Amino acid sequence: MNCTHCNNEMVKGCNVNVEGVIYGIKISKKRKGLFNKVSAKPKAAVCSNCGYVAFYIDDFKQFRE
Ligand SMILES: [Zn+2]
């Protein structure tokens, strides 16, 4: 995973927390069909060169329609 701004290799696996809240944030999406809701906990990647932060999830395929 490279930075979209400077193409530097990003540091993955950073935890995402809302300040003051123990629980992290969650990405979810409503879907049609049997499993009609998918959700995932996002992780963050940080560029150590320019400070850009990107969110990503490991289990992204379940968000495909
Ligand atoms: Zn960068």
TrEMBL record:
Protein name (record): Nucleic acid-binding protein
Source organism superkingdom: Bacteria
Lineage of producing organism: Bacteria, Bacillati, Bacillota, Bacilli, Bacillales
